[in-house]
Design goal:
By secondary structure, the chain is an alpha/beta fold. The chain is built from 14 helices and 18 strands.
Length: about 450
């Protein structure tokens, strides 16, 4: 269940394929509802673009969505397997009224999801998702269908992949090339298995591919950003210059240095923040990240005069904070990086290209550029709770938090938040001493159990 109702969560509708809510029947209704909610007031012919990753169930949902959209008198453009950020770009570039991406991102192939983009390439606002959900629940959709004369048409678009490749290449500094660079690329048997190697090779890199043979069932299976050790091993074996591990829909990237060490999203944000600040391209003098980003990121950015804005977990909240605050760099520890100067959502290939541009511009190895990033020990605990009372209303817990914060000083932090979907509280403590951090986390967990009847 999503935070706003039965259907929508923080990133569209998601679940096990062919089980409620991820059924063909629901996909048809979602297509009908989005087509009706986003109808044009000017009477112009409307169109919605649909893309997907490589999951077996993508065929099921692609045709069901198209049928629902066409039944409302709206045309459909189908582009086949392409990354989620490609759909954000194409929604705007092809002047569509909306875009749809069929993907469950880093989840196993049995899962799938449906997310929507507005005509400007940004994810739909909560209010629009609420209207879609309410329209489905109302039972009004059958009465809103188009007449036989006004049914929409569906067509395949052959040049969508080429459009996205050109877009990616334009995000790369025109005075640089990847000539002579040896790159290991793991596409997670997902949506970037064609465009990823194409763009890197066209920019001059020698590409060694992993996870580029999708069969409908092997997306994210022991490969990609969830298993970067596979990329790391190949980098060491081939003595490559760098490794790139994407997830199934290619909206996130984890990098691997030439030594085979994994570089996660926090280290990348520190690298990008420092580089963009030095070049005068960092708007607002701050980087946006979530509450889960390591304290080491905050310290690394502070050392180069850059501030950090934290949001709740979820890339949509990162983007919202970036847009409202006028910032152009944000991301998550998982490897979602958002460069609003280039795209409206996280884009794993743009992330990789920006790293490669820094390497080429500075003539350095990735290990050298990230060696100064100090990751603080971080302990995460979950506590089952019978009630989700505000933490500040629990005197004993609030006092325990104050004691830990005082002990950590300016070399650590504490975070307690409730799960949005489970009866649990999440506790995070960061500091310099791993043993003490673990003790503090256990003490806070016990305080919560006593205060909230936890188990």
């Amino acid at each position: 269940m999503g935070k706003r109702g039965r259907l929508f969560g923080t990133d569209g509708v998601r679940g096990t394929a062919n089980s409620d809510p991820m059924t063909a029947e629901m996909a048809l209704q979602l297509g009908q509802a989005v087509a009706h909610v986003l109808q044009s007031k000017s009477g112009e012919r409307r169109r919605i673009i649909i893309g997907k990753d490589t999951r077996l169930s993508g065929y099921l949902f692609e045709d069901a969505l198209a049928a629902g959209i066409c039944s409302m008198g709206v045309d459909v453009l189908q582009v086949g397997p392409l990354p989620t950020p490609a759909m954000a770009f194409l929604s705007h570039d092809m002047r569509c009224h909306a875009g749809v991406m069929i993907s469950a991102s880093h989840n196993p192939y049995q899962d799938n999801g449906i997310k929507f983009f507005s005509s400007d390439g940004y994810k739909l606002p909560d209010a629009v998702e609420d209207r879609i959900e309410n329209l489905i629940a109302s039972g009004e959709l059958p009465s809103l269908r188009a007449s036989a004369d006004d049914i929409g048409r569906a067509q395949r678009i052959d040049d969508a992949q080429g459009r996205y490749v050109v877009f990616l290449k334009k995000s790369f500094a025109p005075d640089l090339s990847l000539d002579g660079l040896r790159v290991v690329l793991d596409c997670a048997n997902g949506a970037a298995y064609r465009v990823g190697p194409t763009v890197l090779r066209e920019l001059g890199a020698e590409v060694f591919l992993l996870g580029a043979d999708p069969n409908g069932r092997n997306i994210n299976d022991g490969c990609g950003s969830l298993f970067p050790e596979k990329t790391a091993a190949k980098v060491r074996e081939l003595r490559a210059d760098v490794g790139i591990a994407l997830d199934g829909d290619a909206d996130r990237a984890v990098m691997v240095c030439e030594k085979g060490n994994v570089i996660d999203g926090d280290a990348l944000l520190a690298l990008f923040g420092r580089d963009m600040s030095q070049r005068g391209t960092l708007r607002g003098g701050k980087v946006v990240a979530t509450v889960m980003s390591n304290f080491g990121l905050e310290r690394a950015l502070a050392d180069c005069g850059v501030g950090l804005v934290r949001t709740q977990v979820g890339d949509r909240y990162v983007v919202e904070a970036m847009r409202s605050g006028g910032y152009n760099l944000g991301g998550e520890q998982s490897g979602h990086m958002v460069f609003l100067d280039h795209n409206t959502t996280g884009d794993g290939l743009i992330t990789a290209l920006q790293v490669l541009a820094i390497l080429q511009r500075k003539g350095c190895r990735l290990s050298e550029l990230t060696c100064g990033f100090e990751r603080f020990p971080q302990v995460l605990l979950s506590v089952g709770v019978a009630d989700k009372k505000p933490i500040e209303s629990l005197p004993a817990v609030a006092e325990a938090v104050r004691r830990v914060e005082a002990a950590l000083g300016d070399r650590g932090r504490v975070l307690i938040r409730y799960s949005g979907t489970e009866p649990k509280a999440r506790i995070m403590v960061e500091g310099e001493d791993e043993r003490r951090v673990a003790e503090y986390a256990r003490d806070l967990a016990e305080s919560l159990r006593r205060a909230l009847g936890g188990v």
